[in-house]
Amino acid sequence: MAKWVLDPGHGGDDTGAIGVNGRKESDIVLEAVLEAKRHLERNGETVLLTRESDTFIDPRGRFDIANNWKADYFVSFHMNSLSDNLITGTEIFLFGKENKTEKLTKFIRDEVLSNLKSDDRGIKQANFSVLKETKMPAVLIKADFLSNEEVEKTFNSKKYGYMVAKGCLAMVDKVILETPITKPKPLSNKAWRICVGYYKDYNDAHNALEEANKNGVKDAYIIPYEG
């Protein structure tokens, strides 16, 4: 089990790139990070987010979170933008030549390119502070160009998060576990299940689960709900 810090770029008044139809980079990457967190935790990893809402955190705050928590890996989620609105493609950045960093970068690059159907704009060196000031392997992803109207219309932020999670799990020799859809089997002994809450925020659900456990409810667990 590894400790991952996932960093959704921008936030608050700093929206990052904005597409011609109004989609904001800060919203897309937050949704992607929440999806990646869900899959990593489902597969036994420990995850901390630099932000969980539309708030701004400066770069020092982001790498301090990772360093103080002694994370094993740091992954920063971004989109891209240029004045030339015909350009598309994925760029991934790292700082230095540390072996684990290069390995993580390649795993994420392969997953994002193969499943988001994006052009490969390469793995590049950059001295972004969230890369050079972190004390663990760190990667910054720019998934595609919001300045391209077709990208803005079709870009799937949840798929972005899912594919990055797959790349991260490959780094720790795990294959992402899917939740199979199965038909319920008839029960030989009738039983009843009680649901105690619906939470939009995963951390709220986790806190409610811990409280239930403390109150003696041992057979309690979290299940994803789309709706």
Automatic annotation (TrEMBL):
The keyword Manganese does not apply. PANTHER family: N-ACETYLMURAMOYL-L-ALANINE AMIDASE, N-ACETYLMURAMOYL-L-ALANINE AMIDASE AMIC. SMART domains: Ami_3 (SM00646). Residues 63-173 form the MurNAc-LAA domain. It holds the Pfam family Amidase_3. This is N-acetylmuramoyl-L-alanine amidase. InterPro entries: MurNAc-LAA_cat (IPR002508), N-acetylmuramoyl_amidase_3 (IPR050695). One of its GO terms (cellular component) is outer membrane-bounded periplasmic space. It comes from Clostridium gasigenes.
